[in-house]
Amino acid sequence: MTDHDDLLKxxxxxxxxxxxxxxxxxxxxxxQSERDASTRPVRHAPRTSPRTRRWLQTMVAVAAVLLIGIAxxxxxxxxxxxxxxxxxIVAENPTPTRDDQPSMAQRLYARDVLLRTETLLTxxxxxxxxxxxxxxxxxxxASGLLLETRLLLDSPVSENDxxxxxxxxxxxxxxxxxxxxxxxxxxxxxxxxxxLEERGVMLRLRKxxxxxxxxxxx
Amino acid sequence: xxxxxxxxxxxxxxxxxxxxLYELHVGRVMRMAERMxxxxxxxxxxxxxxxxxxxxxxSSFEGRSKFSTWLHSIAMSTCLNALRKRGRTxxxxxxxxxxxxxxxxxDDPDGALRLALHxxxxxxxxxxxxxxxxxxxxxxxxxxxxxxxxxxxGTSKARLSRARARLRDVLTDAFPNxxxxxxx
Lengths: 218, 184
Known about the structure:
The structure holds two protein chains of two kinds.
Chain A: H1 3-12, H2 24-39, H3 50-76, H4 104-127, H5 138-153, H6 161-179, H7 186-198, H8 201-208
Chain B: H1 3-11, H2 15-37, H3 40-56, H4 67-86, H5 97-100, H6 110-123, H7 126-137, H8 142-149, H9 153-174, H10 176-180
Helix pairs in contact in B: 1-2, 2-3, 2-4, 3-4, 4-8, 6-9, 7-9, 8-9
């Protein structure tokens, strides 16, 4: 270490020097209060057992098959006859009703999905530098989030353009993660991480779900 | 009881396990938050939000990384969000004139030099500052920093190297005589 480094170390060691101690009890009480006030009403689903997960996966698969069936049915259905000219004229762009607006419950649900997606993507990025091989356990979780993201895209929540773009990017990335197999090589994982960086997904996710940090001291 | 058991118990909603996890980690998380924000009240908000988010999503923690790494990753993300909200410019108590008042012959020249360096750290990019704070001030290792920031170990090393070089430049530019005759 050079003299410069020593001097640097000496003069920067008290940069934003932390306190020796603080009131841990008071802070714990604040955490508990915050959880009571906000987390419990939108509590995340409890950890599911492998059996429940298998059941959920089956249900997701059944739902997917049904959706595909409906889509094929609509696509292959004969076109409706033209409306007679003397039919009553209906406004093509009716005024949006209250039903078009996302409800508070839908907003909370969207926030919950985005939070869980942020956690999953953080885990995915952490796995890149983990000494352990990435586990395939995350995949069912990613499939569930992919389905939920697609549901959000079809819901009134996605009326916001920025959120819609974010959800579309998340849909793509989650789909890529879901398709990863246990034998997937590092290149595939790196491509997904690059995709995350290029699209600025983490930053946009954090903007969409901002930390609820007050600025009491600012 | 080891940490793995604590996490399992906390997942089932046992408050005592959550409290134990909090006690185990709050000290280090608070130090990092205070170093990053330079504001005790803001740091407390960051720590509060970090634990609320961590306990809220504990079910999704898969154990592929260490719990402390995962927790610090949330803390750093929360810190950066809070700082972006506030804006990074901080008012130091000492006035700008302190630079001009620097006199190599005075009794305590380190004050002005220290102030100059602290301001230089403030102006480092987000990633470089976080890396410098974690490594040089808080003693995190490069693999730990890489895991927390979600980057490769080499990236962490490069960021630290760039941050130190930037600070050395400041040292040399602002106080050439002192830097040349640096005392250990």
